[in-house]
Amino acid sequence: MREEESEADWDAEWIETEKKMAAQASYGFRTWTPAPEEDDPFDPADLPDFEPVSPASQPDMARLFFLVAVAVLLLFVLGFLDVLMFDSQWWIVLGLLGFGSVAAGVFVSAPWAHRPDDDGTRV
Q: Can you tell me the distance from the alpha carbon of 95 to that of 69, in angstroms, rounded to the nearest whole number?
């Protein structure tokens, strides 16, 4: 075995280390104390002014796309209530129009560009 091959007496070394630790009362496993309180208390008034969120690239187009999506949703509700009767192909076309309209509305709601240090996340 490895212990038998080495000529060190590990038990004796551990006993000696325990004696050293017992002799030094400030050196041990549970001698940690917190640092003295040096921080100033937190005041939210000291925070810098926040930068406003970048405006939408095309807010009028976004509004138009979202209104089209709401109109398509209204048509679907009227169709569900059997007020409107369309062929199944028209319902598929209306569904694609509504989905595309929402996607386009989200796309044009995004800002044109970001600052160089802005990664695009919003919290």
A: 9
Choose the weakest-confidence range: 56-65, 66-75, 113-122. 113-122
φ, ψ for residue 77, nearest 5 deg: -65, -45
Phi, psi dihedral angles at 48 (to 5 degrees)? -70, 160
pLDDT in tens, 84-97: 888 889 999 999 99
- End-to-end, the C-alpha distance of the chain in Å comes to 59
Maximum distance among all Cα pairs of the chain, rounded to whole angstroms? 95
Shortest CA distance to 56 belongs to which of 115, 109, 93, 13?
Answer: 109
**54 and 83 Cβ atoms separated by less than 8 Å:** no
Contacts of 70-74 spanning 24+ positions with Cβ under 8 A: 72/97, 72/98, 72/101, 73/98
Q: Where are the alpha helices (DSSP H) in the chain?
A: 2-5, 10-23, 59-80, 88-109
